[in-house]
Amino acid sequence: MFQGAAVVMGVASCGKTSVGEALAQQLGAQFTEGDRLHPAANIAKMSSGTPLTDEDRWPWLAEIGKALAGPGGKIASCSALKKVYRQRIAEAAGRPVAFVFLDGSRALLEARIAARKGHFMPPSLLDSQLKTLEAPGPDELALRLDVDEPVSELVVKAADWLRGTAFGGLTK
User: Whole-model pTM?
Assistant: First the structure.
């Protein structure tokens, strides 16, 4: 059984929640929807079309990390756009955190965000997220997946990686 901690990350509309929920179910892990941990001020700011600053994000990232802390398998969704954000999450978790980076073409992401209903993140903020995004590097515990693939395939690939390679096979 998976006993590690992982974040499904990427810009708005890449499928973090869909993949994260299915991945947690596949691994028998607890899932935390990162957007639900945003303070009201952050949601109001994003709803008005204003991008968050690093200072806005620090408390939220700490909450994501806390959700991943402790024993057992834990999966969270979070944009985790910068390397320093990913580091803050791992520090708050107090254990290694793997990142499943959902990446996709701008055209696909734009189409998805335009079709999304009832979410506080307006399509106008996609540009700021893409500008802020620092894709995980080779020195990070991360797997890049192309969101052009079906969710079911993304989940299988992420689960296989998390069970094996991500934590050196220690979480089977």
Answer: 0.90
